[in-house]
Amino acid sequence: MHSLPELRDQFGRRFGYLRLSITERCNFRCDYCLPNGYIGKEPLPLTLTEIRSVVRAFADCGTRKVRITGGEPGLRKDLPEIINACSSIDGIDTVALTTNGYHLERSIDQWVEAGLDQLNVSIDSLNPDRFAAITGHDRLASIQRGIDRALEVGLPVKVNAVLMKGFNDTELQSFLDWVRDSPITVRFIELMQTGDHPVFFSEHHVRGEGIKYQLHQAGWIEKPRRLEAGPAIELAHPDYLGSMGFILPYSRDFCSGCNRLRISSTGKLHLCLFGEQGYDIRSLMTEHSEEHLVQELHRLVGLKDESHYLNVGKTGATRHFAMLGG
Ligand code: SAM
Ligand code: SF4
């Protein structure tokens, strides 16, 4: 259980939230991420033992929430064991999963049984044809049934949609219709520029502020932000069962709310999604070097920059988000 000092950077930010990528492989071909699918042989991803060791070290430094991400985490056969390992670690009170939903319908019960507490599913379009065009898979109906099942067993569900001009920027009403009767949170994420896709970004990036303004005009109110909440903004409306949300990385002050650190599937610590490099700490992910790992985490967190420099077009070393899990 947490006994050591918390991870804190030189700007006073605390990091109670770890995003852990367990594979960089993916079976989808989202236009903004892996438009040609995952190509090549994957470097050996973290083993269950390494995952246990690094999450334990984070928990010792005050981390309370772990999000399992990828690539597509559902592609790992040992995902239930990974969920269970994270949820069994003293101090970790929330295990969340971000998935494209491909395996959701058939696996959700198993994931919940293993200890999953929260689910994020990426759905960029509610139009089945458009969904298939964006991802390469005609799978929307199955994913929505999977979400219904997750809600049935009491899991909080967030749906992430990346806003893209010419693809889904006209779908606000469809998402609102869903949120009216369903206790989900739909979050629009502004498309972010990554190293591999500068042209796609310049053609399809659209600011989320316009939609946020429309919602304010229609009576949506921003929810008060919890002190430990991350950079997402959430809105509620009395006529709607669910909520709406925004992740606006190009807005001012986005980084001041940063509460997360990232571990890549090959065991590198990334201080920022758009940092220049990851720090390889894999060799310390053993039962015997946990103390050293904790020291190293504290040292490296001290190197975190105050902000990403996305606004000036710097995307760091992140070629696409499947590398790191978004
Ligand atoms: N494959 C899983 C999924 O799609 O949910 C997990 C990994 S994916 C990289 C995590 C999130 O990053 C998804 O919600 C995805 O839409 C988002 N994402 C990927 N590339 C992005 C980009 N360039 N800008 C904004 N969001 C992006
Ligand atoms: Fe795969 Fe997720 Fe990237 Fe889409 S966003 S290609 S589902 S990793």
Task: Explain how this protein is built.
The protein is an alpha/beta fold and 326 residues long. The protein has one domain: Aldolase class I (TIM Barrel), CATH 3.20.20.70. The protein is 28% helix and 17% strand. A 12-stranded mixed beta sheet has the order 7-8-9-6-5-4-3-2-1-10-11-12. Helix 1 packs parallel to helix 2. The chain is globular, with a radius of gyration of 19 Å. The two termini are 28 Å apart.
N-to-C terminal Cα separation, in Å? 28 Å
* Overall radius of gyration: 19 Å
- Look at the structure and give the CATH class: Alpha Beta
Named once each, the bound ligands are: S-adenosylmethionine, iron/sulfur cluster
In short:
The protein has 9 helices and 12 strands. The protein has helices at 48-60, 79-87, 104-114, 128-135, 140-152, 172-181, 198-204, 209-217, 290-301, and strands at residues 17-21, 65-69, 94-99, 118-122, 157-163, 185-190, 221-222, 233-236, 243-247, 260-263, 268-270, 279-280.
